[in-house]
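Aim 2, interim progress. The first record below pairs a target sequence with its structure tokens.
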Amino acid sequence: MKDISSTGSFIKFYLNNYIYVDKTKYIRDLIKLERVFISRPRRFGKSLTLDTIATLFETGVEPYFKGTWIYDKWTEPTYPVLRLNFLNFDKNSLEKFNNKLNSKITEFAELNQVTTYKEKEEAEDSIDHLLEQLRLEGRQIVILIDEYDCQMTANINNESLYKQFQEKIKSIYANIKDKFAIKFLGITGVTRLKDVSIFSVGSDINDITNASAYSQMIGFTRDEIKKYYIDYLKLASSYENSCSVDNVTDEQIESLLDRLAKNYDGYCFDEFYKKKVFSTWSVNSFFQSIIENKFVDFGEYWYDNGGLPSILVNYLKAHKLNIFDYLEKGKFIAVSTNDFKNPTALTTINQNVLMCQTGYLTLRSNLKYSEMLLGIPNGEIYKALTSLLAAKFFEGKIKVFNEKGINIIEEGTIDDIVSLLNTIVNSVPYDNYPISSEAMVQSLIQAYLRGSGFDVLSELHEAKGRADLIVNTDNRRIVFEFKYANNDTEAKSKLSEAIEQIKSRDYGNVLPVKDELIRIATVFNADPEVRAFSQYQLVI
């Protein structure tokens, strides 16, 4: 069984015999476009894609591409490749950024014996000079720029520095535009911003961010996972079903793939809204955890390892988000298609477009109308988003410890727990965020608990149904069944309904067994004079 790697080096995949999901067919077609840009969230595989392109141009197909689709189809000669990863450049000083870029250009010129090259004071002038000397010599090169927007996203709340880097990036692109000496230009980033002129009218770049033909070039499809990770799928299924790998059935594998999709699939970068992909980082981390832990755990991998980019951290420092826009499962968010396709600057970007570019939302409709829809891609991102927004929304104002230092969730009584629930809902300014449904109640409580670090399961499928919310601690399991009522009379009726539901469906009696099982039926009374969990009962 091949090992899994998240390296961005294609050669390392070859040398170490790592699993490599073959995307080289896309690259053959991509090269024909000559100038391309693609935007994807962090941890998706942009860097590996660029490195694969670089390796092809630098070495050809021998020996690293044996066994790949492109091996007998690549006909290009070799070219020098100028690799620029802006993640490795300074984000706090324009001077340091300029000097580092200059040194990279000069190093490249010396390595490739461009003897007429002379370094200039400004890096954009250096690259312009380099390309002109290459043209005079009749030579061509490949330029690959990874994370072009890194310096700007890091300075979203620093207007002066943001503008300095903005002008620098504009100048760099202006001096590489339409240059004969560039055989191929590839640029990646998280955002796509018109204020750096890369995508403005007259640009020679092909923006393939939402091009259907390339929508599955970065990310995994279900068929690819089944093909390249079949040994891991069998191993995971054997753990789940307590059987040998040889006895795993096709049905068990498909069931596992269904749950994998629920948690990590759903990203759409297709303008026609037809093709979707899994998060590469999450899939790799999921299978790696099986090797390490010897059991199946649908963990939250993407958020913990780069899924909270600096751009979003910085944006949230200066902006407020409506928590309920994102916490209601299945809710779609409408945005202007023009805002989505043509964001101008980070300082004015639509917050939902930014959430999409950073991976927290994704396409939920095609792009042919004036308005389009966004939504949360999958279960992993829903959990990540609740954690993110809860931390921002509550800002540590509600303490899970009482005045005696007792953790209410881990050790508190049912009265303590319900009192905490009421503190949570009372922290919400009703004028701005009216709680108007059971789904909102559930989402708000879940967001707080998840943001506080608890193991929270929402609508967990059990033998006889789904509990609204389950919280697992080391020693106890708390099951919540929430109901929503408009007055006292309705609240009493709803409480009886919740109690019966818990009893008849036996919520909470699932493995692993906990020392203490607490099942709470509770009703939120939305009467303006109440606005609290007014009815509740411990269900034995």
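The second target in this work package is listed in the same format:
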Amino acid sequence: MLRKIFLVLLALALLAGAPVSLAQEMGCVQFGTYKTQADGSTAPIVWKLLSDNAGGVLLLSEYVLDARPVQSEGRFNGYEYSEIKRWLEGEFFEQAFVPGEQALIALEDGTPLVTLPSVEELREKDGGFFDTEGLRARPTPYAVKQGVQKYSGGDASYWTRTRSQSNAGSQRRVMEKGSFGYSPASYSNIGVRPMLRLVSGALADARGAGTLNDPFILSLPAVTPATPPPEATEAPETETETETQDTLTQSNGQPAAQGEPLLIEGFPPLTAQGFLPAGQAPYVFKDEEQGVWRYASPTLRLVITRHQDIDNKLRWFESHIFFTEDESFQMYPFDPGNRRKMSPMEKIANKYNLVYALNGDYYIYRVNMNRDGKKFVIGKVARDFKILYDQPINPNRKTHPNLDVMALYPDGSMSVHGANEMTAEQLIKAGARDVLSFGPWLVRDGEINVQGVANFGVTQQPRAGLGMVGKGHFLHIVVESRTSKSKGVNTTWLAERFQALGCGTAFNLDGGQTAVLIFMGEQLNEIGKYDGKTNSREQNEIMGIGTR
């Protein structure tokens, strides 16, 4: 009945010369089935109806259905030559659609038009769905189980079929709140939100109201299944892939089967724990143009990636650091005999031959200001199991930083605390080697410090933070600012990013001219102009891990 009413209204509108969008009026189609639950059970796929015209019926999945890389192995040459394209047109097409449904999917040169949306298509407004809200999509429980990047608001990031113009090894994607960014094509935590085109007239005999709760259900043509080939009496001699269970597409810290080598894209064969075999020389990979740096040794593995969100004028670095019990993050002073002595951070990193180095809390700034007669609170500071300062904080403090606390432990873990939750003495007794005072703490027990990020670090600035995915797996994020490439972020953005990448614990470190990322003695991030300077601040110490 509703469909008849709609068709009458459509006819009247056409007679009056007023354009009517079917996609805007009745927007949902049920077509095909796919895994939706965490246990792999299937359910019908619901699609947004984008257009219905002589060119066919264009559909976009209502939900993010899966998570997988665009290209996990080999050189990335764009979507047209990618693994994900072959998967959508092959395995996904065969699994998701029965023969009658397959017959309704339009073909191009014999290939089913099952694809990903392009950035240009997602920017079209005529369909009634392509606005900020329409770009956002929730993941299915199955996609979440597959590791899709999920934001605090509940939406998931998903790929487009558009290649990054600024980074040839990356693919454009939709991020939080419908913004566009890009990630390396090998990332396996980005979602898949398919698009497909049906033949013209596919909706002609559809039943249903076209709503999310009562979507259109298409009438399927009768299709005679092809006669299967006779079963072979003897299996042909072919090379088979035996490493599927042990092969990972990116550095996610998951071990291989016991005793089996771990194959991670971009690295030589690793042990089951994800490191080089004992005695093997370190592996170093640098590709500044693509924004990818890698390192592996018997005790340490690093993956550094540079990200660029052109639409939001944002550039940042994400470093996943995996390490054994023989390594740990700790603070390295420029002069152990005089902790107030300052030096360029690269010089400190090179003094200790550090593989990876980053800035800390810049507590010496507050110490030096005290020397100048200003009553700056220093907070709770300890280095190498020794307490330097253990000052209580005014609970009504409004000045950033709020001097929350981060503790680093020799066992490869970290903890974060409010400014007055624990004393430095208590943290040292609990086993902390270094106690830093800056803040706010960003994530704890998987939850964002909502009040902290709302009150401290609210402007867009260069930011740096350290998070923990698990013991022996840290994540370091540095966001550039004050440059033509990047305007910076607030601590809310930083907290949400850490949470989305799986960090149960994260802390905001000193930013601005202090925020640095140093790999193999070289600073990778760009320092924006501030007070006429474009170099990083001199420090009395640096945080680091690994020896070159």
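The longest helix spans residues 2-15. This observation will shape the mutagenesis plan for the next reporting period.
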